[in-house]
Amino acid sequence: MKYQPITPNAGPSLYSHGAAKRAARPLPDEMLPKAAAYAARAWTLTAATKEPRLSAHARPAERMLECALLDLLMWMHNVDTDEIRRDSSLQQMPRMNVSLLGTIRRACPSEAELLIKSLGDWDALWDFLKALAPPTLAAHMNEKRAELNRDIRTRVMHWLNDLRRDVGSAGPRFDPGCEPQPTKPAPAKKINMPLLQEAAKSIRQNGEWNSLGGDIAPFAMPHVPGWPAHRALEIRDLKGTLLERMTPSRLATDKPVILILDTDRRHYSAQLDGKTVAVPDDGNCFYHAVLRALGPHDRARLVTTIGNEHSYQFSKATLMALRNATADELIQHPWRYQSALELLELVNPSGGRR
Question: Are 224 and 289 members of one domain?
Answer without folding.
Answer: yes
